[in-house]
Design brief:
The protein contains three helices and four strands. By secondary structure, it is mostly helical. It has one domain. Helix 1 runs antiparallel to helix 3. The longest helix is centred in the middle third of the chain and has 37 residues.
Length: about 100
């Protein structure tokens, strides 16, 4: 039985920022369709929406980084007192694999 007692705060923050930024990029095509409908309809608010489409993925990425860092920090505090998340060994290998690194 293995347990995760601490996580690297910077690593978690980078991953969370990248994931949040990538998820925000999924919204961009929907926003482009909305801008096109606004142009066809003659609505003058397309400039603000197009600016939001550029800023939103960056903002989501930065906020994801900050939230990921805070979450990792809180996890380290709680795991230090409670022992962390226990992971059972589901598969048996000839060489045990520890966090993606093959070790003999």
């Amino acid at each position: 039985m293995y347990s995760i007692r601490s996580v690297d705060i910077r690593s978690c923050a980078k991953m969370a920022g990248a994931l949040y930024g990538a998820l925000a990029l999924l919204v961009v095509p929907v926003g482009i369709v909305g801008i096109l409908f606004g142009l066809v309809k003659g609505n003058g608010e397309t400039v603000g929406v197009s600016l939001l489409l550029v800023v939103a993925p960056l903002l989501y990425g930065v906020l994801g980084f900050v939230v990921g860092a805070i979450a990792a920090w809180v996890y380290n505090l709680v795991a230090g007192r409670m022992g962390g998340i226990e992971i059972g060994q589901c598969l048996s290998f000839a060489y045990p694999i520890t966090f993606g690194v093959l070790r003999k």
